Amino acid sequence: TTFTYTGQEQTYTIAESDYYTISGNVQTNAGTHTVTVSLKDKNNTAWSDGTTEDKTYSFVINKAEPQEGYVPDCELTLTENTDGTFTAAITPVDGTEYSFDGQNWSNDNTKKVNHKEEVTGYIRYAATENYNASAAASKTVKAGHGTLEHYNAVEPTCTEDGNIEYYYCPVCKEYFSDAGAQSEIGYSDTVIAKKGHDFSGDF
Fold it and tell me: For residues 183 and 200, is the Cβ–Cβ distance under 8 A?
């Protein structure tokens, strides 16, 4: 009574007889199927229980597992938003579904990600009429600081402090010595003290 999809016709076997007809017992696609057995001459024949109504039976063709290695590639990109957040997007592939927790799946391939937040995207081929969903592929990325404010180096004067070249993140209020935000520094590290006045020497 239980089969697995093969792409070929599968038969729920009931002994044939000149007294009844059988329908619905040969099926190909996955699902629950109903077999109907009907007496040909209900006026002169009956089932062993004395009834003449049609008899029905059910059998199941289960979905098949996808071929091994049938897994889509997972590409995950981040786009900076104007409010300091990011949009994580899984590159779409025909016939797939998406998740950002590996448990809940849908057709939504995007998620809003906070500043400096790590996100993992998952993709798999969705279940079809005859096949279960494929194994999932995933990719993890970390949202960075986005667009940093850049400050050019300024030489100090006698009366004004200068500064080194540095970068500033207005969202988390952190300072960096490089555009890739790999080397964090303090604000005091950016300052070059003013020179002051030198009154030494001859007049």
Answer: no
User: In angstroms, rounded to a whole number, what is the distance separating the alpha carbons of residues 22 and 5?
Assistant: 22
d(CA 2, CA 71): 27
**Sorting pLDDT into bands at 50, 70 and 90, what band is 201?**
low
Q: Which residues pair with 79 in a beta bridge?
A: 87
CB 202 within 8 A of CB 167: no
pLDDT, tens digit, 9 for 90 and up, residues 32-57: 999 999 999 999 999 999 999 999 99
Q: Tell how many helices (H) and how many strands (E) occur in the chain.
A: 1, 18
How much is the pLDDT for 199?
60
Q: pTM of the predicted model, to two decimals?
A: 0.75
Nearest to 67 by CA among 22, 17, 12, 125: 125
Q: CB-side exposure of 123: number of CA atoms within 13 Å? A: 20
Residue 198: the pLDDT is 67
Phi, psi of 31 (to 5 degrees): 140, 180
Q: How far apart are CA 121 and CA 67, in angstroms?
A: 23
Identity at 63, one-letter amino acid code = K
Evaluated on CA atoms 12, 14, 16, 22, the torsion sign reads negative
Model pLDDT, residue 202: 57
Neighbouring-strand partners of residue 119: 141
For residues 120 and 148, what is the distance between their CA atoms, to the nearest angstrom? 24
In this structure, are strands 55-62 and 31-39 parallel, antiparallel, or unpaired?
antiparallel
